What we know:
It is elongated and about 95 Å long. The chain has 31 helices and no strands. α10 (about 105-125) crosses α11, α22 runs parallel beside α25 (about 325-340) and α25 packs parallel to α27 (about 365-375). It is mainly alpha-helical. The protein is about 70% helix and about 0% strand. The longest helix is centred in the middle third of the chain and has 22 residues, at about 280-300.
Amino acid sequence: FIVKELLPHVCELSKAKYGKFTVNCMLKNSSREQRKLIFKSLSGQFKKLTLHAEAVTVVDTMYNDYATSTERTEMITEFYGKELYLYRDLLSEHFSKVIELYPEKKDKVLEELLNHTQVFIEKGLTGHIIVQHLMLQYFLHGSEDTIQELVTEKLIEQIVNFVHTKEGSKIAMRCLWYSKAKERKMIIRTFKGHVKDMCINENGYLVLCALFDCVDDTVLIKKVILSEIMDSLDTITMSQNGRLLLSYILAPRNTKIFPPSIVDCLKVGDTNKISKKDPQARRQELLTYASPGIIKNFEDNVESMLMENKRTILLTTAVNHANCDLSNLFTAIVNLIGSDPSLVDSTTMHILMRSIQQNENHQKQFNDMVFNSIPEDVIINWVKTNRGAFSVMRLLEHNTSDKNNALVSKLKQSDINSFEQSAGRDKLLEFLQVS
């Protein structure tokens, strides 16, 4: 009854400071049929309502939470112009479909979208999902020069409001890629105080990755972005997205870590005309600054990092790619093994030790530390487990010291055949036979 009585007034209620809450309540508590009636009462008014500071929240709620795919398309095509709105049943909410069906309308629709985007920015409406969707259609298909003109101080002030959404993050990345050096610096400064939240957000961390790829002023990145990351490492390493962000600093676009969809998304910015610095030089500067802080944090938290496979993989990424001295980290790992020898048989310690022992730059240093810190009898006991036996074999393969020779002799004298059969034990026996 209430919905029926209020239907003629839904449009005006949506524009009212408090009336919009009534409409949102109607949407939340109505049946699907009642929502269709509400949608019908607003049909043809969505463009006008989206440009209204109060009503936009109603439109956004309807678009984001309740509208069907067909209804979303109808809402979006109102912004493509009156002519295309007549053919809304044939279109998609995505502009690429419009271009495919009506290529001759591209320039006219882009002009419409540009005008709307300018109004959205001027009125500060960019925090709404429907607005971000419309803006993204222009940022994806408009000219780079025009996009560069859109990245004004007014838009830059609002970027932190939409970096956390899927479409908003894509807009933010394009703001970085296509803006001039001065605007890029302004964008970076607006991120101050928000970096930790961006790191742990599934979309926000990608904006930071794009930033690392294109901004030449690495001094400013270190001062504003990386310093805040270093201060929040405990929180960031606990988050899957945070770990991906750190992995990007350590090993950008590593295909073993990042799926093709992410790599392809970030590659779009490689052709921007503003960045001048060699990409490899830029990445190396950031890595050199970030590595000591990351390694120090991992050194202090090595035991807790080994409690989870995904954090262990981040630790191995740091070992393989960090650009700093790893002695203290290796000491912490060896001390941990010494305090609890059973850890050698754990999945995470096995992954970590294998990564270090197979790394040509670190294997000798790490193996020497093991020989100097772990008693021979303890090392021999490792052979009783499959993973432990593999660790011992790698220890012997890459070390030619006197201690290595002494351990080989002791192992030959030991009754290894009596140990439980395993692939690791058998491989070690084969190695000892030819040693």
